[in-house]
Write a structure and sequence with these properties.
two-stranded parallel sheet; 14 helices; mainly alpha; about 350 residues
Length: about 350
């Protein structure tokens, strides 16, 4: 049976990667006039290769008509350069398939039957797939040694993920990506920060109604998932449901994972119609629902878990006093005191 585990893992990862790529291909084909969120980075990368300022081509009344200026650092444009020569029709499915497959790979590293795989059944993932968002890839990168290069592409969310899963190699990768971006385009921080400062919708969730209650996770600050929750609540981000994908690193049981999946759909069902509200009003409503329907339930999950050093030592397989009853239906806790990327 053990010999079949690598095969099972490969099949699970392959099915997720291929099905997500196929769905993205179908969605982009059905709505060719609606570019994905990824298109702005693709355009910026093509502009840079053509010798044009990438921050001058994206935004209102610019060659690539978009509702906002380019809000990505140049490190994201740099990572995207290999995709620039390809047509956008292919870029979206390749990007989504790769990010989804990589996330499935890291989530099945210790066991194939991981409740965190339920992320692929969530509304958060569906929305990320439709928009070709970075969230699946960023979440996977947090658990990989070289993931700092990807985390540097969205520094706010990347910093929150690094706070939960720090590592020396990840720090070196992020620093290398930023240094390379500065060498190739030294002026990008001015353009990037200038556009970012004008966006009212990019706010920390902790400033919204109920947000300060997320700080209760400080009671479990030694746990990686508690640091993740607090950091995500404190960094400025677009409060859209696709940013909830990293929260699926918190569930440890099938019940917790299934509950979080259901709550993501509750967020989607209760949101006002996009056409009935302004963009900022819509995202303000989304932020409130993220806090109450997702973040605070995750706080409850965390408060039900051990928090002291002694308790962590007993429940972590790396602790000296760890005991496992081996009862049927139990799930082994994830390592809490060790950077799993270095194992």
């Amino acid at each position: 049976m053990w010999e079949l585990l690598p095969l099972r893992r490969t099949l699970v990862v392959g099915c997720i990667a291929l099905s997500s790529a196929a769905l993205t291909w179908a969605i982009r084909g059905a709505y060719p006039a609606s570019p994905s969120d990824l298109a702005q980075v693709w355009i910026a990368a093509r502009a840079y290769l053509a010798g044009v300022d990438p921050y001058s081509v994206v935004g209102p009344d610019r060659p690539f008509q978009w509702g906002f200026p380019l809000l990505y650092p140049f490190s994201a444009v740099l990572v995207f350069l290999p995709f620039a020569p390809l047509p956008m029709r292919w870029v979206d499915p390749l990007w989504v398939g790769f990010g989804s497959g990589l996330l499935a790979w890291v989530l099945t590293r210790q066991r194939v039957a991981n409740p965190q795989l339920l992320v692929f059944a969530s509304f958060a993932y569906c929305y990320a797939l439709i928009l070709s968002q970075w969230s699946p890839l960023l979440t996977a990168a947090a658990l990989l040694p070289w993931g700092g290069v990807i985390l540097a592409c969205k520094p706010t969310v990347g910093l929150a993920l690094f706070a939960a899963y720090p590592g020396r190699r990840a720090m070196i990768g992020a620093a290398a990506a930023i240094l390379a971006s500065l060498l190739l385009y030294p002026r990008w921080p001015i353009a990037w920060l200038g556009g970012l400062s004008q966006q009212q919708h990019v706010t920390p969730l902790i400033l919204h109604t109920g947000g300060p209650l997320i700080l209760l996770a400080l009671l479990r600050w030694r746990r990686a998932e508690a640091r993740l929750l607090m950091a995500l609540a404190c960094v400025p981000l677009t409060p859209s449901i696709y940013e909830a994908i990293p929260l699926f690193l918190i569930p440890e049981t099938w019940f917790e994972g299934g509950l979080l999946v259901a709550l993501t759909y509750l967020v989607g069902i209760t949101l006002p119609a996009f056409s009935a509200a302004t963009f900022n009003e819509y995202l303000a409503a989304s932020a409130d629902r993220l806090v109450w329907f997702l973040y605070l339930p995750c706080v409850v999950m965390l408060l039900r878990r051990p928090g002291t050093v002694e308790q962590l030592a007993r429940t972590s397989p790396w602790g000296p006093n760890y005991t496992n009853s081996g009862a049927a239906g139990t799930t082994s806790p994830q390592p809490l005191l060790v950077d799993s990327r270095d194992i």
